[in-house]
Specification:
- The complex is a heterodimer.
- By secondary structure, chain A is α/β, with parallel strands linked by helices.
- Chain A has ten helices and twelve strands.
- The longest helix of chain A is centred in the middle third of the chain and has 18 residues.
- Chain B is of the alpha/beta class.
- Chain B has an eight-stranded mixed sheet, sandwiched between helices. In chain B, strands 2-1-4-5 form a four-stranded antiparallel sheet.
- In chain B, helix 5 packs parallel to helix 7.
- Classes of the chains: A alpha/beta, B alpha/beta.
- At the A-B interface, helix 6, helix 7, helix 8 and helix 9 of A face helix 8, helix 9, helix 10 and helix 11 of B.
């Protein structure tokens, strides 16, 4: 990994539930991402992946409690809450939301919506901001002449490009993309992924791709973390995750994805994800795991380093526990 | 292909569905020409007992409209839809109840298709009451339990009194399937049946469809996902702008695609193995507006064969631009609508 730009250290997020009780959505996540790297955060609904990046952005709702550190170029952006997060948000670290293409303001031109964050954060104003908005549109593959168009005049793919242009308005170093292609057709998805890949190469932009779609991450990202039940089950280079998975969930998740040739066997994972509103003493995947053994139900596995930045939170990698069983 | 007509459940022939675009008051006063969305333009296919046919394509290609026409939720402007030999495309609305029982639909979103105030028992029993079948109360209860067991919700007693919010997405979709099965349909239309579900449970629900197929049901599956179609369908029909551009045995269509559009679609499907990196053939632009369909082959403005000059070099470009070709057989039971000669 190149020079690290973003590190998350032992992040926990709790939500107070409206009817009492607490949901422990993120249960100790640690990861670091290098400058210019494309990193995937993969998991199924409710695993805590979106909560993790909202915490990184400092955008969690008021009923959330956070602990841990988020270091952006060495500086803890969570240290003093909104006070320390605000100067970086949209400026150093930016985000494309899930369904962003449907979140554009319908009564404002695309140009005005790209200019707004620049003026808000004092990045550029007036003619200069408008000039940069045009450049950004061209960067994402839309003609500058479309600045004065409204969102409804754009197709879904173009609106998603415009949302990416907005996120890039203040020249951030890190772009978080939450399911950026979920509602798009495969052809448009390929165009958007190609765009993200090009931006990371041309601008040296760090891209964190958050998605449930494993093949998408496999083709776009250098490294990825697989998240389950609020923890990172496994982190590592994409190639290692596919060819040498060290957490049963990673292996089973790959087996649940049909391949385009229709040849391999597809196997679903029995059971359902754990509820996070009650404490889980052991490994959250234990009830669905095909290789669970004695310590799994009672002992929480810590991440175990394997090699080349490959880590897995699974007791199977701990020789002290597997011996004799 | 077998010609056993008993096995033929659905035969759609030259189906055309167009939606008029409202002109509005000013448009009417200005006598602007009436415009139409050409949603489905001459679609033909057959579906047999024990078969899954996947209609695959991007949004706006007409796959859902085709399914809605089969369900008689929209009216066909031309063509015929035969269910076990009987043309249902002109059956008056008032006489559709029998047809509705025989053709059931599974919707994309099981979070919305089930009534949140209905228990599982009521959700599965209700269709029988509406269609006045299933005998008396105890017999209906037996049928509910049997349907739940058939969709893998076992033991049924564990699920009967639960509400949708107490079920996972996969379980909800199974309840929706059970509510169709109690009517003993001949044809099941499944519109993106797993796209709202988590990856880890999709295969289980798709295996259920596979089991239903093996028990003799005919299934028309609407999906945008070629990988899913390749695994679970017997045949795939690829749609583009209201037409089927390629149709054939599922694995053959994905592994030996004959139409340039299918080839391009296959090239952009990401593979879970990072070492398998296909050269994506990204088509420029998006699917054209079905209000003004391009003349000639409707795919030619985006076709890589035309754009690369290969069509010109082989002398077919004029036909690509001027002549709308129907499906022609390339391999046994595998057809494509393309001027380019087979194997090139």
């Amino acid at each position: 990994m190149s020079e690290r730009i973003l590190s998350v250290e032992d992040l926990h997020v709790w939500f107070d539930l409206p009817r009492g009780g607490v949901l422990h959505a993120v249960q100790g996540v640690s990861l670091s991402v290098g400058r210019g790297e494309r990193f995937g955060l993969v998991g199924e609904s409710g695993c805590g992946k979106s909560t993790t990046i909202l915490a990184v952005m400092g955008l969690l709702p008021p009923n959330a409690t956070v602990s841990g550190r988020v270091l952006l170029e060495g500086e803890d952006v969570l240290a003093e809450g909104e006070h320390s997060a605000r100067p970086h948000r949209w400026v150093d670290i930016s985000m494309v939301f899930q369904g962003a293409m449907n979140a554009l303001n319908p009564v404002q031109t695309i140009g005005a919506q790209i200019v707004e964050p620049m003026e808000l954060h004092g990045y550029a104003t007036g003619v200069g901001a408008r000039e940069r908005a045009g450049t950004l549109l061209e960067l994402v593959g839309i003609g500058r002449d479309r600045l004065d168009r409204f969102p409804h005049e754009f197709s879904g793919g173009m609106r998603q490009r415009a949302a990416i242009a907005m996120a890039l308005a203040c020249e951030p170093k890190v772009l978080l993309a939450d399911e950026p292609t979920t509602a798009l057709d495969v052809m448009v998805q390929a165009q958007i992924l190609g765009l993200l890949e090009r931006l990371s190469k041309e601008l040296g932009l760090t891209v964190i791709l958050v998605t449930h779609d494993l093949p998408l991450v496999a083709q776009v990202c250098h490294r990825a973390a697989v998240m389950y039940g609020g923890i990172l089950a496994e982190t590592g280079p994409m190639d290692a995750l596919y060819h040498d998975p060290r957490h049963p969930y990673t292996r089973m998740l790959f087996s649940a994805v049909p391949d385009p040739t229709g040849e391999s066997d597809v196997v679903s994972i029995p059971g359902a994800p754990p509820r996070l509103d009650r404490p889980i003493p052991g490994c959250p995947f234990e009830p669905r795991c095909d290789r669970a053994f004695e310590p799994c139900a009672s002992l929480r596995p810590n991440p175990i380093s394997l090699m080349d930045g490959h880590e897995a939170s699974c007791h199977l990698n701990d020789p002290a526990l597997t011996e004799g069983s | 292909m077998s010609t056993d007509s008993d096995a033929l459940v659905l035969e759609v022939h030259d189906l055309v569905v167009r939606y008029p675009i409202p002109r509005g008051l000013t448009g009417t006063l200005a006598r602007r020409p009436r415009q139409q969305v050409h949603a489905v333009e001459g679609v033909s296919f057959t579906l047999r007992r024990g078969e899954i046919l996947a209609l695959v394509g991007e949004s706006g290609c007409g796959k859902t409209t085709t399914a809605q026409a089969v369900l008689r939720l929209v009216d066909a402007d031309a063509g015929s839809i035969s269910l076990q030999g009987q043309d249902i495309s002109r059956t008056p609305r008032g006489r559709l109840r029998g047809v509705r029982r025989r053709v059931q639909i599974i919707y994309q979103d099981p979070y919305e298709s089930l009534d949140p105030r209905f228990t599982v028992r009521r959700a599965v029993e209700e269709p029988m009451k509406i269609h006045k079948i299933g005998g008396d109360e105890p017999e209906r209860r037996e049928r509910v339990a049997a349907a739940l067991a058939r969709v893998g919700l076992e033991p049924p007693d564990l699920f009967l009194d639960r509400y949708p919010h107490e079920l996972s997405g996969g379980q909800r979709q199974r309840v929706a399937v059970a509510a169709s099965l109690v009517l003993e349909p001949e044809l099941l239309v499944a519109d993106e049946p797993v796209s709202m579900l988590d990856v880890s449970v999709r295969a289980g629900v798709l295996e259920l469809f596979d089991a239903l197929r093996r028990s003799g049901l005919a299934i028309l599956m609407i999906t945008h996902d070629l990988s899913t179609a390749a695994h679970y369908a017997n045949r795939i029909a690829v749609m583009y702008l209201g037409r089927i551009v390629e149709e054939g045995p599922a694995k053959e269509v994905v592994n030996d695609p004959q139409h340039p559009y299918t080839k391009a679609l296959m090239s952009v499907i990401p593979d879970a193995d990072p070492r398998k990196h296909r050269t994506a053939q990204i088509l420029t632009g998006e699917t054209p507006n079905p209000v003004s369909v391009p003349p000639g082959c409707r795919f030619h403005p985006r076709c890589p064969v035309v754009a690369s000059g290969h069509a010109r070099a082989t002398g077919i470009e004029e036909r690509c631009r001027g002549e709308d070709l129907g499906l022609t057989e390339r391999l046994p039971g595998h057809s494509a609508a393309c001027h380019l000669a087979a194997g090139t």
